[in-house]
Amino acid sequence: MDLQTTIYIVVGLSFALYIGIAIWARAGSTAEFYAAGGGVHPVTNGMATAADWMSAASIISMAGLISNMGYGGGLFLMGWTGGYVLLAMLLAPYLRKFGKFTVPQFIGDRFYSKSASTVAVICLLTASITYIIGQMTGVGVAFSRFLGVSSDTGIYVGMAIVFAYAVFGGMKGITYTQVAQYIVLILAYTIPAIFISLQLTGNPIPQLGLGSNLVGQDLSLLAKLDQVVTDLGFGKYTTTTAGSTLNMFVYTMSLMIGTAGLPHVIMRFFTVPRVKDARSSAGWALVFIAILYTTAPAVAAMAKTNLIRTVTPGVVMSNADPYQAGSQIEYEKRPDWMKRWEATGLLKFEDKNGDGRIQYYNDKSEDAAFKTKAETAGWKGNELTVNADIIVLANPEIALLPNWVIALVAAGGLAAALSTAAGLLMAISAAVSHDLIKGVFKPDISEKGELMAGKISMAVAIVIAGWLGLNPPGFAAGTVALAFGIAASSLFPAIMMGIFSKKMNKEGAIAGMLAGLAVTLFYVFAHKGIFFVKGTEYLDLIGGANSFFGITPEAFGAVGALFNFIVAFVVDKVTKEPPEHIQHMVEAVRIPRGAKAVDGAH
Amino acid sequence: MDGKSAGYWKATLGLLTKILIIWFAVSFGAGILFADALNGIHLGGYPLGFWFAQQGSIYVFIALIFYYAKKMGDIDREFDVHED
After folding, report:
1. In this structure, are residues A123 and A431 in contact, taking their beta carbons and an 8 Å threshold?
2. SS3 of residue B81 by DSSP
3. Which range has highest mean pLDDT (A264-268, A365-369, A409-413)?
4. Which end of chain B lies in a sparser environment, N or C, as judged by fewer CB atoms within 10 Å?
5. Which of B27, B60, B67, B70 to mutate to test the interface with A (most CBs of A within 10 A)?
């Protein structure tokens, strides 16, 4: 069977499975629509949370990023997992005890203010909508690369699938499809990794393979990689940091706080029966996430090794001199997978010195000794450009795995994009139907009316998300960082103070959220333009790029959170303390006893 | 606030502080601030600082959450505020 047919069959089967679940898991009440009825097992919820959390970018792009960054890529690994420790201890159990459907509802009730909940809704919508654009384009990309249809067609098909289970099933449909999607995506990620690890190190477990010796050599894979990349003018793989140590520190912190504050993740913990389940469920979520996140660095380093091995075979597998002309392969003799990916434009070769061989190295190296060697060898610049996404997408082909594995990678990429998109749509539609329609505009709406409003909001959200995927605004690339920045600087501190500070009042919380949001947006927009419109950057105003202690805009969320906390405490001190009954509410939220199934009562 | 619930909250915050110290030590400490120093030590083929940044901290995070869940359960029962 040819590759294209296999891919159609595997992806088709996975879609049939999701639709089957959609028919089985329809939501008949608001409790089912917003919280899957509140009876999801903590392990099941952990698995669904893992799929909810791991986006198209986690699957397709993260290993490639780490591959290019080396050690510094660890900031994504620590940042996107360490947040679960914060979520498990600081937020999830208490919000579960509070027992309401949405994050803005907690903020609105705790700070006894419709304005507070409306500010939270705005933060939630901005964070979730910016995040969803990336997922929809991810769906389109996966379709166009693997199924040979246009990206637009891919987005329409993706919308139809999500529509089937999200509109009719709400959180209930989403939960069980996410479980299925997790299984698909984790198989798609780990199977190629196992084979690659076996081929390079003889160890089938990638996490151990990364710490093992190369097959037939007395040198560990990482030591060899360090040596080879240094020979090619790159920084040492195991020590190159992302900017300064301070930037890596703050960036990691921002991702952690942002992870803990993202509403579509927090919401998942409203579906478990008890407070103690919310605690353990966060642990299970991290177990399922860690299977991928500890494999990713192995994929990253091994794919880098494989790429260099393809171009200069003798240098990696024996000790050939990298500067000898014979060390680099002739372009005409390149393997088939390179030809296939050249056709997509993700891989490009340009024979700058006209010798018919591929020179892949860092031509921007500042190292004088290296520059002399490159010049002596007759190199006239790097000749191979490799898009980071190839690291995962081409893995099965580089390792010469059978067609069904390639098909599985396609299905896995789609599963990751669809599951995250559905979780985000759930957060968006719940905020609209529950916090805005029921909370602000029409408090006397009936249960049935609210369920209908929820389904309509979901359908509208899908159409908007699809439209944004079809017409991605020019700023799409920067948006995920913005989502984390907003969650970190506005929502996380507000929720945390709502639980851990009994005396925090509405004035403090609202001022804090607005200050955190404003300072983060101000810094991000200075670098990327006002609402990402090109040409409206105002770097001069803040004194140049990364002017705040060399911190990049992506890493700024933690600074925004700090502003939020400081402003909130200062304003809290000069305004009157919260009413007695709110302080009692906080005490009640802090203890597990008396937890009931979540409901929507205001 | 009566003495019992003050005691419960104190015990909770004590546990959180302990866990957050370890959380910080393995990621920001071993994985970032002291990574260079730790790289002198090897764990198999892994330089230790690199291992903490790309593997070790994640394993410790998992252990921390389950430890937290277990210890909180104990504290809940000790102060008699556990769920039925």
Report:
1. no
2. coil
3. A264-268
4. C
5. B27
- The answer to whether the beta carbons of residues A550 and A243 sit under 8 Å apart is yes
Residues B19-75: tens digit of each pLDDT: 999 999 999 999 999 998 999 999 888 999 999 999 999 999 999 999 999 999 999
pLDDT digits (tens, 9 = 90+) for A440-464: 888 888 888 888 888 899 999 999 9
In chain A, CATH 1.20.1730.10 covers 29-304+399-590
- How far is residue A481's CA from residue A297's CA, in Å, rounded to a whole number? 21
Q: Tell me the two tokens of residue A338.
A: 């390179």
pLDDT in tens, A329-340: 888 888 888 888
- B54: contact with A, CB 8 A cutoff: yes
Question: How many angstroms separate the CA atoms of A198 and A516, rounded?
Answer: 48
Average of pLDDT values for A183-206? 93
Partner A, chain B 23-42, Cβ-Cβ below 8 Å: 23, 27-28, 31-33, 35-36, 39
Q: What is the ipTM of this complex?
A: 0.95
pLDDT at A244: 87
For A29-304+399-590, CATH gives 1.20.1730.10
Q: Measured between CB atoms, does B16 come within 8 Å of chain A?
A: yes
Across A205-231, b (16+ Cβ under 10 Å) vs e yields bbbbbbbbbbeeeeebbbbbbbbbbbb
Residue A5, Cα to own-chain centre: how many angstroms?
Answer: 30
d(CA A63, CA A298): 8
Q: Mean of the pLDDT values across residues A153-178?
A: 89
Give the residue among A508, A485, A428, A466 at the shortest CA–CA distance from A157. Answer: A466
Phi, psi of A386 (to 5 degrees): -125, 120
Q: How many other C-beta atoms are found inside a 10 Å radius of the C-beta of residue A579?
A: 12
- pLDDT given at position A601: 67
Q: Is the separation of the CB atoms in A191 and A429 below 8 Å?
A: no
Separation of alpha carbons A165 and A48, rounded Å: 14
Task: Evaluate the CA torsion angle A137, A143, A149, A153 in order and state its sign.
Answer: negative
Q: Residue A381's closest CA among A400, A358, A410, A404?
A: A358
Residues A528 and A544: their CA atoms lie apart, in Å, by 12
